[in-house]
Amino acid sequence: MKVSGQWLERAETQKVCSALRDAGWQALPVGGCVRNALLGVPVADVDIATDARPETVSDLAKKAGFKVVPTGIEHGTVTVIAGGVPYEITTFRRDVETDGRRAVVAFSDRLEDDAARRDFTMNALYALPDGTVIDPLGGIADLKARRVRFVGDAGTRIREDYLRILRFFRFHAWYGDSGAGLDADGLAACAELSAGIETLSSERLGAEMRKLLAAADPAPAVAAMAQAGVLRQVLPGADHRALAPLVHLEEGAGPRWLRRLVLLGAQDAAGLLRLSRAQAKALAAFTNAAQVGGNAAVLGWQLGAESAADAVLARAAMTGAAPAADWQEEIARGAAVRFPVKAADLPGLQGAALGKRLKALQSRWLDSGLRLTKADLLD
Ligand code: ATP
Ligand code: MG
Q1: Is residue 335 part of a domain?
Q2: Which atom of ligand 1 is nearest to the CA of 163?
Q3: Which residues surround ligand 2, an ion (CB under 5 A)?
Q4: 47 C-alpha to center of ligand 1: Å?
Q5: Does residue 208's CB lie within 6 angstroms of at least one atom of ligand 1?
Q6: d(CA 172, CA 147)
Q7: Which residues, at least 6 apart from 22, have a Cβ–Cβ distance to it below 8 Å?
Q8: Fewer Cβ close by (within 10 Å): the C or N end of the chain?
Q9: Which pLDDT belongs to residue 100?
Q10: Which structural domain, as residue segments, surrounds residue 125?
């Protein structure tokens, strides 16, 4: 089986790999790039596995004229920047000891060791320079069946790193067969060991949850998470039931993870998932808007088009009532208009009195669905 694609054929990828190969080392694109190329979906970034040690990778890359960033050199990863494109080059590793959060790794000369410490068979795929895929663990068959399967014993692998529970659901949402459901052994192990999620940092949880919720349809995976008792470990108080209706309603609106997160209605999602300040603010604003509802144009004016659309869709999914037929036009109208009255239109008023008057006029204007004109308001 062979893969191809611009990510593999482009000059930078070939040059980076050649820098290692010409010195006698292996250089194999691995993981997401090979998996996605086999699936025919876009490849985000190219990770490379090698038997060269990190210092050697660094030396050879510098000699070839690339910029080198020692991102995680103690874990074996060197980032090489070629033509502006970052490549993460990681030395083959094998696990020697784990504490459930970080693995203590030793470098290895064998690709098989490296494959055995990856999470899922579909992520343990490697490519040779001509695109030939090396598949030591049957990942291609699992990929064809759209089956996310742990490498080795699911329970053992989860105890090494509890984040793998979330990754199991994330990869299922993106690449799994939603009809066939999740791999039974994997699911059972996730349910049994869900308490271990407690040990994970909010950064790691947040990164995985954002990726999960950004899938085209995360609803079946999130429902399975809820059933397995995993969802409440991550987000206490979350309710997944409005998620499927939302995904149905948002057709064409694009898979925004923040909109999906609103629907889960968890307490303190912003803190638990370590959202950025801007993300937390948007989450609060349209959680509120989704709860109280209101005129689509007014929401567009208050929140901007994107968040207003999120709020309208979220509200419809929560209440089961379809939004008004013209909701998109109304949001666009609201996002484009400005409150027509300015302080200069109210001569004779100053300070608190002016503020009060402007506020009153604005509230009349909002009540009119942003339709009253300046003349109407000053009349
Ligand atoms: P994406 O398209 O989301 O980036 P990816 O497969 O590249 O998908 P990453 O999270 O970037 O996913 O991880 C890169 C590779 O590293 C994976 O394909 C997998 O082989 C391995 N990996 C990452 N995280 C873990 C983990 N917690 N346990 C085991 N292997 C992991
Ligand atoms: Mg990746």
Answers
A1: no
A2: 27
A3: 32
A4: 9
A5: no
A6: 7
A7: none
A8: C
A9: 57
A10: 1-144
Atom 4 (ligand 1) nearest CA: 32
Q: Do 1 and 57 share a domain, yes or no?
A: yes
Q: What confidence tier does 376 reach under pLDDT thresholds 50, 70, 90?
A: very high
The answer to whether 188 touches 157, Cβ cutoff 8 Å, is no
3-state SS record for 230-267? CHHHHCCCCCCCCHHHHHHHCCCCCCCHHHHHHHHCCC
The residue out of 92, 112, 144 marking a domain boundary is 144
Note the pTM of the prediction, 2 decimals: 0.88
Of the listed ligands, the closest to the CA of 123 is 1
89: β partners: 48, 78
Our count of domains for the chain comes to: 3
Residue 259's alpha-carbon distances to 268, 271, 310, in angstroms, are 15, 17, 5
Between CA 126 and CA 259, with CA 170 as vertex, the angle to 5 degrees is 135
User: Are both 123 and 20 inside the same structural domain?
Assistant: yes
Give residue 17's Cα distance to chain centre.
28
**Ligand 1 within 6 A of 163 CB?**
yes
The string of pLDDT tens digits covering residues 222-276 is 999 999 999 999 999 999 999 999 998 887 677 789 999 988 988 899 999 999 9
Q: How far apart are the CA of 31 and the centre of ligand 2, in A?
A: 7
Average pLDDT over residues 327-355: 93
Q: Please check whether residues 53 and 114 belong to one and the same domain.
A: yes
Q: What is the mean pLDDT of residues 43-57?
A: 96
Q: 170 CB less than 6 Å from ligand 1?
A: no
Beta strands in 118-251 (DSSP E): 126-127, 133-134
* DSSP bridge partners of 81: 67, 86
Same domain, 27 and 133: yes
Give the nearest ligand 1 atom to 44 CA: 2
**134 phi and psi angles, rounded to 5 deg:** -100, 125
- Does residue 372 register a pLDDT over 60? yes
- For residue 24, pLDDT over 90 is answered with yes
- Which atom of ligand 1 has the smallest separation from the CA of 161? 27
Q: What would the DSSP string read from start to end of 59-115?
A: HHHHHTT-EEEEEEGGGTEEEEEETTEEEEEEE-EEEEEE-SSSEEEEE-S-HHHHH
Is residue 47 within 6 Å of ligand 1 at its C-beta?
yes
Neighbouring C-beta atoms of residue 6, cutoff 10 Å = 9
